[in-house]
Amino acid sequence: MLQNAAEMVMSRTLRILTIFMVGFPILHPLLSALVFQLPIKGVVSIALSPLFYLLSVFWVMSGIGIRSFHHWSWYTFGVAQVLAAYFNALILVNHSNSEFKGFSFGFVMLLQYLLFRLVAHEVRVPYLFPKINWWESGIAGTHHLEVDLTPTQGGVPASKGQLLDLNLRGCFIKSPHDFRLHDPIQVRINAYGQELVLPGRVVWNAKSTVTHPKGIGIQFGELERPLKRKTRVLIKYFNQQKESSGGNPALPA
């Protein structure tokens, strides 16, 4: 579904997160020894555990896959999270000298939750898994928020598209047209009393599938404060309208 995914430009936050994932085999024993107050014997037990190596494989795969924007990486990341929670519980029960085991486990689970939320936020739009209901994949008669797409170089003509998902980092727009990756583009939206022109660039082309219609992912540039404020208002009304209308936002006023 994604074309030239490896050429996408990830955010600094996501790049740092994937570095931590790839470094899991080294970072996890160190963090466990610190948070769980493990003796040397406990650290050695972790290093010799087959489950630790299986867990490391999933974390490293997730870091590499997310860095290349492969869809399978989201699922390996989920498995890695579950296995990590189980493995940490085993470490606490069998090796920890901490007097606050419940607090230590809660702290580590909080770190895992924050990591999950950060990764989910970073890869959702415009890269992977935009929030699109299954019936929005191309059923005739469904109406969405219409936007104007204006490429700013290459002589590509302007066209219209349908906005299906939006956040401050980018958007997914349903469109029958193919756009060149990395080309700068402007998204003009006039709805809910807001008129915005969002500058960005095309970072992936999606082919029509069961879960995604044909369209494009657009990564926004650094939005100035007034534009970012107006975009937040638009996102709020767009999501509220989408939820209240069963996935079909009202057309622009």
Short description:
The chain is 47% helix and 19% strand.
Could you explain the architecture of this structure?
- With 253 residues, the chain is an alpha+beta fold.
- The protein folds into 2 domains: 5-124, no CATH class; 134-244, predicted glycosyltransferase like domains (Thrombin, subunit H), CATH 2.40.10.
- It has 7 helices and 6 strands; from the N terminus they run ααααααββββββα.
- Strands 1-2-3-6-5-4 form a 6-stranded antiparallel β-barrel.
- Strand 5 and strand 6 form a beta hairpin.
- The model is unreliable at 1-7 (pLDDT under 50).
> What is the strand tally?
6
The structure class reads: alpha+beta
Bin the helical content. 40-55%
Strand order of the largest sheet: 1-2-3-6-5-4
- In N-to-C order, the SSE pattern is HHHHHHEEEEEEH
Instruction: Using the CA coordinates, give the radius of gyration.
Output: 22 Å
Shape label: elongated
**Oligomer type:** single chain
How would you state the average pLDDT, rounded?
83
- Uncertain residue segments: 1-7
Instruction: Specify the number of helices.
Output: 7
Separation, N- and C-terminal Cα atoms = 33 Å
| Total count of domains | 2
Strand content: 15-25%
Largest sheet, in brief, is: 6 strands, antiparallel, barrel
